[in-house]
């Protein structure tokens, strides 16, 4: 398996998991919505299984209520539909300082963005807690 293929599988696995979580579905709930077994979905999310057949991919997309092109990683620039951060990160290769970001790095960056966007800055203590979590995520990013 070439390096590009591994990246694609990692990105697909992270995209699938992040989309499921962002929709608030457990594996069991997505399985019921998509008519795909929870164990197969779990293996896809862990990157243990390659991309599913197109028909299974369609069922998963329907269960997630997203266009199948999102899961295929096809460019959505020609549509007027906005992309979620998960779609943007995991359907595109992202380069920083001449190096492609790994799926793990993208996932940590998403976590950092989520912390920043959801930070409750109504008190100094809450802001310091959010900054501490962001700092921990930055350390995790540097280690990945």
TrEMBL record:
Source taxonomy: Bacteria, Bacillati, Bacillota, Bacilli, Bacillales
Q: Where is the HTH cro/C1-type domain?
A: 16-71
Identify this protein by name.
Answer: Helix-turn-helix domain-containing protein
Species whose genome carries this gene = Ureibacillus suwonensis
- Identify the CDD domains for this entry: HTH_XRE
Task: Kindly give the SUPFAM superfamilies that the UniProt entry links to this protein.
Answer: lambda repressor-like DNA-binding domains
- By its UniProt entry, which InterPro entries does this protein fall under? Cro/C1-type_HTH, Lambda_DNA-bd_dom_sf, TransReg_Diox_bact_type
User: What is the top-level taxon of the source organism?
Assistant: Bacteria
Keyword set, alphabetical order? DNA-binding
């Amino acid at each position: 398996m070439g390096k590009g293929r591994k990246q694609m599988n990692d990105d697909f696995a992270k995209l699938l998991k992040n989309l499921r979580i962002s929709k608030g579905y457990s594996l069991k709930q997505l399985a019921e919505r998509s008519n795909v077994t929870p164990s197969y979905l779990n293996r896809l999310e862990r990157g243990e299984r390659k991309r599913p057949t197109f028909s299974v991919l369609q069922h998963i997309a329907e269960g997630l209520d997203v266009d199948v092109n999102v899961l295929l990683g096809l460019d959505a620039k020609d549509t007027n539909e906005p992309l979620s951060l998960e779609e943007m990160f995991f359907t595109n290769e992202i380069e920083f300082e001449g190096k492609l970001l790994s799926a793990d790095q993208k996932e940590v960056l998403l976590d950092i963005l989520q912390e920043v966007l959801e930070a409750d800055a109504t008190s100094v203590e809450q802001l310091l807690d959010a900054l501490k979590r962001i700092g921990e995520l930055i350390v995790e990013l540097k280690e990945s």
